Amino acid sequence: MSKEEREQHLRRLKDIFQSNFALGEANGTKKNKESAVSQWKYFMEVLLNWTAMIPRQHICRLTPSEKQERDMLLLMFAAALSEKGHIPGARGHETAKATLDVISAVDVWHIEREGLPLRSEDFKRKISRFVKGRDRLKPHTPRLREGYSHLHLVAMNRLCKSYPPDRRWFTGKKNFKGVNGRFDAAFVSTIVALRAAAFSNLMRLGELTGIDDTERQRFNPHDRPTVASIDIHRREDGSVTHLTMAPTLYKTRGSVFSDVPLSFVMTEHDNNACRLILDMMEKNPLKPGQDPKLTPLFRFPASAGKLVDKVIDPTLLIRIDREAIDAIDKEDPSIFQAYSPAAKFCGHSYRIGGAVALMLANAPRHILMSAGRWSSEAYLLYLRIGAKKNLSHWQAAMYNTMASDQIVCKRRAIAYTPSEEHDR
Questions:
Q1: Nearest Cα to 201, choosing from 320, 10, 357, 19?
Q2: In 3D, which of 146, 66, 158, 154 has the Cα closest to residue 345?
Q3: Sequence-separated (6 or more) residues with CB below 8 Å from residue 388
Q4: CB under 8 Å to 299, separation ≥6 — which residues?
Q5: Roughly how many angstroms between the first and final C-alpha of the chain, as a whole number?
Q6: d(CA 363, CA 356)
Q7: CA–CA distance, 140 with 216 (Å, rounded to integer)
Q8: How far is CA 302 from the centre of its chain?
Q9: Which 3 state secondary structure label does DSSP give 13?
Q10: How does DSSP assign 159-222, residue by residue?
């Protein structure tokens, strides 16, 4: 074979390889686009009970409110893609590039059929902040975390308050760090106050207890609330109006939320956080000589043996919560029939459940973001409902995060009304 024939043969092989590569890439792109569009249709038509082709008001342009609506829908779609179980085929916690590829494919499909894009000019900044927030919220284990509901808190607190004072934390030989304390009045008042404080202010248990985690460097024990962190606000007649607590600085240090105190308003509800914290401070008071600036607010009482005056460990409360849910479910399976089993809940469940409860109570988007101390739309990752296959709650969750009145008012989802035993 001559040199010219050899070069001609190599060029022919190169052309064949290039054409095969282009064909395979086109087929792969087409397959990925069809998969992305099918996921978008399921999200819009099944979960939100709306049309996948979003209508427009004008022929050749979108109003600012329409752009905001479409951006929010895409961010909700990204949140649904970020976790298994919401959309068939979604693996959960996709990378930033994978999320953007799916959204780009849906945007191209929408332009081809509707004529106008889904994404606004500002969407790139929004999705970048969302992905960064999502990476920070990504669980350290593949186990799906569920959120508590008002029903869980009411039932668990009622059960703990019904225990006799000499009842031990665990039955049999089980203990916590060599201690098996009692459910006396001081301990019960502490755990019910801790539950209410975490749920009402959308906090993880570790934020309120500050247990040091050297492996993940998450909670700083110096940032946890102490007795001195509480300020009691009263009327002229001496009655309490609300409590304020110095903000915990986990994930808020350096942000606008680092100077905003947590607030607990007094109501007549039995599970009101303000009322329960005051009751806890009365039943588990400071001992003579204790420094309120160094004494943890949520601490073990004298019945905890060698753990006395140490901060409540979140892992202990998680074990107590799970055993309480199992005991309630065993006595009456209908109470938690619509919710996940006890093993799905953890210390993060209070923050997730608090966000979902606010959203189901029709809280506006800016209220939800400020209550949970979010600076981006990453809060959408918390809008997960513990109820299985409850699409009406999913629709209410998503529609109540919309900033525009067009969708909220004209396409109203099923409203959520708390029962009498829920905080309003």
A1: 357
A2: 146
A3: 338, 339, 340
A4: 190, 284, 309, 310, 311, 312
A5: 87
A6: 10
A7: 9
A8: 34
A9: helix
A10: HHHHS-TT-BSSSTT--BTTB--B--HHHHHHHHHHHHHHHHTT--HHHHH----TTTT---GG
Q: What are 244's strand-pairing partners?
A: 231, 263
- Note the Cα 298 to chain centre separation in Å: 23
CB 56 within 8 A of CB 49: no
Which tokens sit at 6? 């050899």
Name the region of 363 (left: φ>0; alpha: ψ -120 to 50; beta: rest). beta
The tens place of each residue's pLDDT in the chain, 424 residues long, gives 566 776 776 566 556 545 544 444 444 456 677 888 898 988 888 877 788 887 776 666 778 878 888 888 888 888 888 777 777 777 765 677 788 888 888 888 888 887 778 888 888 888 888 887 777 665 544 455 678 888 899 999 999 999 999 999 988 778 888 888 999 999 999 999 999 999 998 888 888 887 654 444 555 566 778 898 899 999 999 999 999 988 776 666 556 677 778 889 998 888 899 999 999 999 999 989 889 988 999 999 998 888 998 889 888 999 999 999 999 999 888 888 877 788 888 888 898 888 888 877 777 777 888 888 887 777 777 765 544 445 555 565 555 555 433 333 333 333 333 333 333 3
Question: If you search the block for the tokens 């590569």, which residue do you land on?
Answer: 21
d(CA 221, CA 56): 52
